[in-house]
Amino acid sequence: MYVSRFVGVSVAGSEPEEGAPAPDRLIAGDPKFRTWNVEEADGGLYAGIWEATPGKWRIEYDEWEFCHILSGVSIVAEEAGEAHTLKAGDSFVLRPGFKGTWEVVETTRKEYVIRV
User: Name one Pfam family in it (predicted).
Assistant: First the structure.
């Protein structure tokens, strides 16, 4: 039996998981998340599309994440450093140990790859 090694990253034909920041991390607004996981591989590798509505919350990363912004505007600020305004076309990596805030200014959609 043939098993394809190609996985397209798309929201078509799949239902998202819905969520929100943990209440103790919420700073402002009432942000809601939608996540379409298209890959969950052994060893802690995840890929898909994530979307969030406006709001602001604290973030802490134990994992490595590559992100590519598809639409919207967000500001990711390091706890003791710079704030980065992100918009469609921007790509970045959040490394383990990153602490700061994520603020969605305009509903934001991103592609992601996470390595735990």
Answer: Cupin_3
Give the CA distances from residue 40 to residues 46, 54, 56, in Å, rounded to whole numbers and listed in that order. 5, 27, 27
Task: Residue 72: give its domain's CATH number.
Answer: 2.60.120.10
The structure tokens 């700073």 sit at 27
Burial class (CB in 10 A: 0-12, 13-18, 19+), 12: exposed
**Given the DSSP bridges, would you call strands 99-115 and 55-60 parallel, antiparallel or unpaired?**
antiparallel
A 10 A CB-CB count for 33 gives 16
- pLDDT for 65-92, tens place per residue? 999 999 999 999 999 889 999 999 999 9
Nearest Cα neighbor of 111 from 64, 68, 72 is 68
Residue 17, domain member (yes or no): no
Instruction: Of 114, 68, 73, 74, give the one whose Cα is nearest residue 95.
Output: 114
Q: Are 49 and 37 in contact (CB under 8 A)?
A: no
Q: Does a structural domain hold residue 6?
A: no
